[in-house]
């Protein structure tokens, strides 16, 4: 799966109903050939809407960085953090800062500009083709591509 394939798949999954965090994570696993269970994908659900619909850090980058953690994170308390985990996560987050610079920040509230506690606003966001949801698609596409490129640069 190429980075462009990942970008396409991530936006399609978001369109079908996955949260941005789930879409980027799922594509990362697919790129790696990992057939993970639905429980792992479900665990990424609360990161939509900027962590529990608070508008904080965009779930797109959280899902993408979770792929790096899946590969290189600790498996047991006594394990040491791998330097590669920190290096790749940092590199990916810096790329995300560039992707989201035009929005003024990396938070969901900067990109989507939705008050997630206002159900009318949420409905409009999801159904109105002129809503800022189109910006989320752009961010998801670019972030999934950046993740794919990073994985390829590291022979993954």
Describe it for me?
Keywords: Membrane, Transmembrane, Transmembrane helix. It comes from Dissulfuribacter thermophilus. By secondary structure, the protein is mainly α. The chain has one domain. Helices cover 63% and strands 0% of the residues. It is built from eight helices and no strands. It has helices at residues 3-16, 20-32, 38-43, 59-72, 83-100, 108-111, 119-127, 133-153. Helix 1 (3-16) packs antiparallel against helix 8 (133-153), helix 2 packs parallel to helix 8 (133-153) and helix 4 (59-72) runs antiparallel to helix 5 (83-100).
Give the structure's gist in a few sentences.
The chain has eight helices and no strands. The protein is mainly alpha-helical and 156 residues long.
Would you tell me the overall average pLDDT? Answer: 95
Please indicate the percent range of residues in DSSP E strands (runs of 2 or more): under 5%
Largest sheet: none
Silhouette: globular
The secondary structure category is mainly alpha
| Oligomer state of the chains in this structure | single chain
> How many DSSP-defined strands?
0
Radius of gyration: 15 Å
Key descriptive features of the protein:
single chain, 156 residues, mainly alpha, 8 helices, C_GCAxxG_C_C family protein
Could you outline the blueprint of secondary structure elements for this entry?
Layout: H1 3-16, H2 20-32, H3 38-43, H4 59-72, H5 83-100, H6 108-111, H7 119-127, H8 133-153
Helix pairs in contact: 1-2, 1-8, 2-4, 2-8, 4-5, 4-8, 5-8
């Amino acid at each position: 799966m190429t980075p462009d394939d990942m970008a396409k798949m991530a936006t399609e999954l978001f369109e079908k109903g996955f949260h941005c965090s789930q879409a980027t994570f799922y594509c990362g696993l697919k790129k790696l050939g990992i057939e993970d269970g639905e429980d792992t994908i479900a665990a990424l659900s609360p990161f939509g809407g900027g962590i529990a619909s608070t508008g904080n850090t965009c779930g797109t980058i959280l899902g993408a960085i979770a792929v790096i953690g899946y590969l290189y994170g600790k498996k047991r308390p006594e394990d040491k953090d791998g330097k590669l985990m920190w290096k790749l996560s940092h590199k990916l987050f810096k790329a995300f800062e560039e992707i989201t610079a035009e929005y003024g920040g990396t938070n969901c509230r900067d990109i989507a500009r939705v008050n997630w506690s206002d159900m009318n606003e949420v409905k409009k966001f999801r159904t109105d083709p002129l809503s800022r949801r189109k910006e989320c698609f752009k961010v998801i596409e670019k972030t999934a591509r950046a993740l794919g490129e990073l994985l390829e640069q590291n022979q993954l």
